[in-house]
Design goal:
Strand content: 15-25%
Strand order of the largest sheet: 2-1-3
Shape: elongated
Distance between the termini: 41 Å
Largest sheet: 3 strands, mixed
Number of domains: 1
Structural class: alpha+beta
Length: about 110
């Protein structure tokens, strides 16, 4: 639920953020550069537990900066990254646990 405070914060971000003031096409290039080309390794621990690893720490921090950036970038790691599972059979189980829009966004699987 959007409160009055969060509305004002969102509006202020949109108006004052140097990044959010850029045209969408330029932001998309920046976001693709920042989030694309990564290998995501899914380490399956048990029926209900898995861990997704990437060599770079905090590579998804961009998604946590504000609501608008999250809305524009949430699917990019799925669209632009490559996913591998250890063991390999765990990949389908892990994908089934993702929201449908994330599953449909995955474009590259490493077999």
């Amino acid at each position: 639920m959007l409160t009055l405070d969060s509305y004002h914060s969102t509006k202020k971000n949109r108006e004052e953020s140097p990044l959010l003031c850029l045209p969408a096409e330029i932001r998309n290039h920046i976001f693709s550069y920042a989030l694309g080309g990564r290998m995501w390794v899914i380490l399956w621990r048990s029926r209900r537990s898995s861990v997704v690893k990437n060599r770079e720490e905090n590579c998804l921090s961009l998604l946590q900066t504000c609501r608008q950036v999250y809305a524009e970038t949430a699917l990019l790691p799925f669209e632009l990254g490559t996913f591998r599972a250890l063991p390999q059979a765990a990949l389908q189980r892990w994908l089934r646990m993702r929201p449908r829009r994330c599953r449909e966004a995955v474009e590259s699987l490493d077999q």
